[in-house]
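Typical record was shown:
=====
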Amino acid sequence: MGGLADKTTMGAPKLIHEIADIENSLREIPVFAEFPQELLSPLVNFSEFEEFKKNEEILAQGQMNENLLFLMEGEVSVFVDGGFVGKISEPGSLLGEMSVIKRSPVSATLVADSPVKLIEINTNGLLNSNAELKGLYNSVLYCMYSHVLVEKLEKTNEKAKRFEETNYRLKSAEADLKSLNENLEDQVHQRMKALEGKIGELYDQLSPLKDSSRLSPEDHGQVLHALEILNPIKSFLSSGLKLKGQRILYVDSQKKNHLSTKLSLGGTGAILDQALDWEEAKEKLSSQSYSLVIFDEEHLSHFEEAQNLQPSSFYLAVLNGFIRDQLDSVGHLQGALRFFFRSQDKKTQIQNMLSAVTKILTDQYFGLEPYMGFGAEVRSERIKSSTQRADLLEELDQYLNTAGVRKNIRERARLVADELLMNAIYDAPVDSIDRKPLFNHLPRTE
C-alpha cells in the first residue's frame, strides 16, 4: 500500500484465490471482457492489486514507467507542471499508458484524490517471461493499446464536438449580449439626458426664488440648500453626457483590467478601444483619433512615442504602488501626463477610473461632480472664517467615527479637510474683475 509494486515480484506464483480475484477484476474492464482465456492468463500472472491513500502520489511527472495501471476504485487528480488539469474516476480507466507505449517519461503527475485501488500490469516482465511467446504477448499488448486508444479517441472526438457546440452557443450569446449592451448603454444615455432636463428645469424654477424678498428666512434657507444639492447633480449629469461619442484607447497587458475599465465607462456613451500590447496600440493610434489614451505602468515607456502620433490627445497613466515610489519615473512628465494609482479593490478601481476620465474629458478637476455617481451623500456646511474650522473638523471626525472608519484614516481625512477648508476660506474667494484671491494675504488664523 502506498506505492507501485516492485517489478521483480510480479510474475511470481500466486495463490488460486489471488488469480481468481485479479482475473475477475480484469474481466470487468471493457478491453479485457472478450479476451480468450489463453491470452488473459499471462496478464494475470504479471498483474498486482495496488492501493493508495488519499493525497498519495501514484506517478510523478518526468519519471520512467513500464507498468500499465487500470483504475478500479476511487478518484485520481491529474497535474501538469504543478497545475491541476482534471480528474479520472471511471472504473477501468487506463493511467500512464503513453509513457509505456512511447517508452518516454510520464507527462503528468497522478495523485489519489480519495482511497484508490489499481490493477498494475508489468509489461516488461510479461514480454521477457517467455522468448517463444514474446511475439504473441506483443500482439496481446498492442491489441489492448489499440482498443484503449480508439476508445480515448472516440471520447476526445465527442468532447471536441461538445466544445464546438458550446463555443457556437457562446459566440451567439456574446453577440446577443453585445447587442443588448449597446441598447442598454443607449437607454442609460437617454435616461441621463431626460434626468438632466428634469433637474435643470427644477433648478431653473428654484433659482429666481433665492433673490425673492417674499420668502421667510427659513424658506429662503431651504431654497439655497436645495440649490446647493441640485447644482453638483446637474453638473454631474451634464458632464456624463459630454462623454458620449468620445473615443478612448486603453492599453494594458492584463485582460482583467480591461474588464474593469469597460465596466467603468459603460453607460457613458464613450467609445472604448482596447489594446493588450504596444504594437496593437500603435496600429490603432496610427489609424484612429482619440480624445484620451490610457496606459498601464508597463506601457508608460511608450508615452512620448504615442504623444508624437497624437499630440492633441489627453494621456492618463494607471500606476501601481505608492506615489512616493513613482515620483522619479513620472515627475518629469507632469503637465503632459495625468495619472492615478490602481486600487486593489475592484469597486474602488471602477469608480476611480470613471472619475479620472470624467475630470479630464470635461475639464472639471474640482468639485463634487465626478463623484456623484457613486451613491455619495451630499452634506453642505457654510464657512465664513477660520474660527469655524475646528468645529467643522470635529464634526467630520465624529461622522467618520460613527461610520466605523479607523483612527489613522480619520487623521488623514482631517488633514486633507483642513487644507480644503483653508483653500475655501483664503484662496477660493476671488475678485470679480481680475480674479485675484481676496483673502490669500491674511494670516491663516483670521
